Amino acid sequence: MSPPSLIDAHSDLSGAAPVALSYELFPPRSPEAAETLWTTIREIETTDPDYVSVTYGASGSNRDTAVDLINRLLTETTLRPLAHLTCVGNTPQELAEIIGGLLDHGVRGILALRGDLPKDGSQPAPGSLRYAQDLIELIRRVEQRRSALLCAGKVAVGVAAYPTRHPESPSIEHDVEVLLAKQRSGADFAITQVFFHTEEYSDLLTRARRAGVTIPIIPGVMPLTSLRRLKRLGELAGVDPAPQLMDRLAAADSDAERRRIGVAATVDLANAALDAGAPGIHLYTFNEHGHALDVLDRLALPRPVRPASRRLTLSRSQELASEELAGQELASQGLAS
Ligand code: FAD
Q1: 243-251 vs 255-275: helix axis angle to the nearest 10?
Q2: CATH topology assigned to domain 20-304
Q3: Residues lining ligand 1, CB < 6 A?
Q4: 8 Å CB contact between 105 and 74
Q5: Ligand 1 center from residue 288 Cα (angstroms)
Q6: For the whole model, what pTM was predicted?
Q7: Alpha-carbon dihedral sign for residues 285, 287, 292, 297
Q8: What is the pLDDT of residues 27-74, one digit of tens each?
Q9: Max CA separation in the chain (angstroms)
Q10: Looking at CB atoms within 10 Å, which of 30, 161, 167, 307 has the fewest?
């Protein structure tokens, strides 16, 4: 018989788990969009999230802007990027190169996705990776070749999960089997597709746990403030937005009123997910911080207190660097004291 575990005897050793906070951003499509995005980045940086995810076009068309944004997040901010990557639109060789490049630049989190299939019905090129599961295995292979470089921590691989049936899937049971297969292939966590009804996330959690899925399943929460966006996202993801909310947003007579209604509905949705056991909240920002931060303000998430903020450390080191530069300039002019 093995000796009793010290941890079992002290069940309160680890205390209440803090709730993870993350945001989704997408690479900008124009210089004006980049300006808005960088205002958003600076605003969300003040909330000290655990990571920010950067989307990737399924056709691979925005690869350069995605990689550029990730590199800038790594070098110019205190944020930790989670790079989305898709099978669709890239050969396995290209994907291996992109993964290697991301790891070499310091990325330690990748969201492995299949990507949406082209709308024209064209099929992926022969030899392409077929499912997200194949991409997870490729990431793990590339990671293994760099294991000596990664002594300070392995790569966290995330995957998509679906509170409502994936549009191509035969059933929600099949979706959970796929999630379990992704876990077996090496996924560390999952982020959900948008959902609009409180019970959809808790049902997914129950079904997934019963099937043996043990990885964290983080609810993806979008601010429910824009009627247009709700309709579009609903169509894209094959999810029906709540008709009552749609009616209330449509009847609202000002943007401020729509914002109030939408933020309140989002907070209810996120709180229901937290009550069901959500280990974190992933906020879809659409590159705008206002509504996402309104939601965050009203959530009161139990977050770790980080005494020496990395942001302050970075801004202090930037301050010191500019003081040093100014000193060198004065010295070169013979004006230093
Ligand atoms: P998979 O898990 O591979 O599933 C795809 C389909 O194949 C499903 O119907 C599944 O049931 C089926 N399937 C999977 N494995 C098997 C198997 N072994 N046998 C039989 N059937 C199987 N798209 C982008 O293009 N860029 C992004 O940045 C992006 N970010 C996203 C972020 C999140 C959090 C989420 C939830 C989705 C995101 N998407 C993104 C959308 C995603 O690419 C689509 O939903 C896509 O249609 C499926 O991707 P997946 O990774 O779930 O694929």
Answers
A1: 160
A2: TIM Barrel (3.20.20)
A3: 55-56, 58, 84, 86, 113-116, 131-133, 160, 166, 168-169, 174-175, 178, 181, 191, 193, 220
A4: yes
A5: 25
A6: 0.90
A7: positive
A8: 999 999 999 999 999 999 999 999 999 999 877 778 899 999 999 999
A9: 78
A10: 307
Contact in structure between 191 and 53 (CB atoms under 8 Å): yes
| 24 among known catalytic residues | yes
pLDDT digits 0-9 by tens, 126-143: 889 999 999 999 999 999
User: How many other CB atoms are found less than 10 A from the CB of residue 22?
Assistant: 22
- Assigned token pair, 72: 């800038």
Residues 48/306, Cβ–Cβ less than 8 Å: yes
Whole-angstrom distance, CA of residue 56 vs CA of residue 60: 7
pLDDT tens for each residue of 247-293: 999 999 999 999 999 999 999 999 999 999 999 999 999 999 999 99
Torsion of CA 275, 279, 285, 287, to 10 degrees: 170
Q: For residue 228, what are its two tokens?
A: 């247009």
Q: How far is the CA of 44 from the centre of ligand 1 (A)?
A: 27
Q: What's the token pair of residue 320?
A: 């010191």
Ramachandran assignment for 212, one of left (phi > 0), alpha (psi -120 to 50 degrees), beta (any other): left
The one-letter amino acid code at 238 reads G
The predicted-structure confidence for 299-319, as pLDDT tens digits, reads as follows: 989 998 876 555 544 544 454
